[in-house]
Amino acid sequence: MFDLLDRRLVWVGGKGGVGKTTVSSALAVLAASRGKRCLVVSTDPAHSLGDALGRELDDSATRVLPNLDAIEIDPDAEVDSHLKRVLGQMRRFASSTMMPELERQMQLTRQSPGTQEAALLERIARLINDRESEYDLIIFDTAPTGHTLRLLTLPEAMAAWTDGLLAHNRKSQELGKVLKHLTPKSGRDMPTPFDDPDKDQFSDLDERTREVAQTLINRRRLFHQARRHLEDPKESGFLFVLTPERLPILETVRAVATLESVGIPVVATLVNRVIPEDADGEFLRRRREQEATYLERIDQELARLPRPRLPWMETDVQGLEALQEVAGQLERLGF
Which SUPFAM superfamilies does the annotation name (predicted)? Predict the structure, then answer.
């Protein structure tokens, strides 16, 4: 029914608390059982992937099952690593008297809105673009929807942030001319003369400025390449998880429309925690009646997408044994 797991990049998103991590983990277990070398990555700063898998995870790949590794990206570590790289570049072009102020500015930048997202985006882009990767499939367990949309639809943020930092350089006037050339379409992923690696567009610039410009070009290319992989429906697909409740439905409808408007392929929605048909009791009967209205609304508002339903489990899903049970249900639903 679905070819989601046949793609190289799978994104699992949705409102907080709807079961994204459980579904991401179960899909990864299912893919690994089919012999795919799979990496599942949590991009949510409030990680729960390790809890779901019953394993202690960190920022490096941890083997969970044969064919299955897992990572919880540490956004603070990504910010530190990125600022360290930028500061190292700045030292090469700024005088020693300027460095204390630059370092102070960098620390202020660390706390500015969007810094973690920008650092996460760079890490994700490197995973997406790694053509030498040992994995056949990477499943991203993403943060709640708003965060994910910023990550996926605003790759220009990182370039703008870097440009802003470089503007403090004493070469700002000269660099400003370079940056103007680098953003002919406000950073959108459009062909530019700089896409040709054999063509030197900065032959008239001094060595320092050329080096800075090349750094910016490399970063811009990183995000452009990631964006192209993300938009390719043969390579990438998005699955939204929601529960039959008002707020998750509203958020999912908006998020699906937003992703589709920017060319991100949405493959399906998965309606999670549907009350089983054989659940008994007056309380559940009344809950099922309310749920039926929401299921009908989902069918109406997301009619263009597949909408398989995953039943509510009797207990919390935690650990590999429980995930294998969910993986079996997903397989029966056509994944």
Answer: P-loop containing nucleoside triphosphate hydrolases (SSF52540)
Q: What is the mean pLDDT of the chain?
A: 83
Domain count, the chain: 1
Please report whether residue 326 resides in a domain.
yes
Q: Is residue 171 part of a domain?
A: no
Which CATH number belongs to the domain containing residue 49 in this structure? 3.40.50.300
CA distance 327 to 26: 5
SS3 of 173-201: the string is HHHHHHHHHHCCCCCCCCCCHHHCCCCCC
Of the candidates 12, 170, 178, 18, which has an alpha carbon nearest to the alpha carbon of residue 101?
170
CB 12, CB 144: distance < 8 Å: no
Q: What is the pLDDT of residues 271-301, one digit of tens each?
A: 999 998 888 788 888 888 899 999 999 999 9
Q: Which two tokens stand for residue 175?
A: 């660099």
Position 173 in a domain: no
301 C-beta neighbours (distance < 10 Å), count? 16
Q: Please state the φ and ψ torsions of residue 209, each to the nearest 5 degrees.
A: -65, -40
More confident residue, 27 or 113: 27
313 within domain boundaries: yes
Torsion of the alpha carbons at 202, 208, 214 and 216, rounded to the nearest 10: -120
Tokens found for residue 165: 């930092």
Print the domain residue range for 96: 4-154+223-333
In percent, the amount of the chain with pLDDT more than 90 equals: 45
Q: What was the pLDDT predicted at 209? A: 66
Residue 99's pLDDT band, with cuts at 50, 70 and 90, is confident
Mean pLDDT of 319-330: 95
Cα separation, 9 vs 2, in Å, equals 14
